Amino acid sequence: APQWGWSYHGRSTADGRGFDSPQLHHMTMVGRYPALALVLTLAACGGDATSVPPSCPQGEFLAVMNSYVDGSVFIDTSWEQAQNTDLAAALDAGGVACSYGIQEAEVGATVLWSTAEAFVSRRAQWQADGQVQVEVNGADEAWALQETNDNETHLWALNLLVEDVWIHIGATFLPDLKSAGPLIDAAINEVRG
After folding, report:
1. Taking a C-beta distance cutoff of 8 angstroms, is the pair 51, 114 a contact?
2. Helices and strands, number each (H, E), in the chain
3. d(CA 51, CA 190)
């Protein structure tokens, strides 16, 4: 006679913090051996699943920030976002906004980690603001606001879509996209739990 049992499928709930409700199914080899089911579920989900950090990262990310701006610290900020801004879109979608650097010197970076939906909602505005699409390793899509004055180039903002996570990096110290590489990698590493 067929055996029936419950299993949880690997889809996240809308808030990204759990699994869908259990589903009744016909038990196969996996259903009879729970440890095998767990291993197969983790393999199917992949070890590189992305998620928005629950709070502002400080460990490795802050170490990378210090390689750009020596003496950088996490700057605990009370955000007052204006409507129709990247900050508002990120926070309204449940993301986090984090500032790092030397506050007294006004040098540093603000990094937003939020949802893909928030990323998509901002794309048209980035185009209107003069951001251009760029290629960034590890990102599915990327937009950058770069400015050249005389012989000097400055990368002001970078918006990355990494699977289902939007990463925004706004910085005062990046001369170009190439030099942003380690900071980009560190920001992406924070979403690959």
Report:
1. no
2. 6, 9
3. 8
For residue 138, the one-letter residue type is G
Q: Which two tokens stand for residue 138?
A: 């590890």
Nearest-angstrom CA–CA distance, 169 and 157:
6
Give the pLDDT of residue 20. 32
Q: What pTM was estimated for this model as a whole?
A: 0.74
60 vs 65: CA distance, rounded Å: 9
Reply yes or no on whether the pLDDT at 2 is more than 70.
no
Q: What type of residue is 162?
A: V
Total number of residues shown for the chain: 193
> Measured at the alpha carbon of residue 6, what is the angle toward residues 192 and 14, in degrees to the nearest 5?
40
131 neighbors 143 (Cβ within 8 angstroms) = yes
- Pairing relation of β-strands 107-115 and 165-171? antiparallel
Got the DSSP string for 132-157?
EE---TT-SEEEEEEEEETTEEEEEE
pLDDT tens, residue by residue, 148-193: 777 776 878 999 999 999 999 999 899 889 999 999 999 999 999 7
132's CB contacts (< 8 A; 6+ apart) are: 143, 144, 146
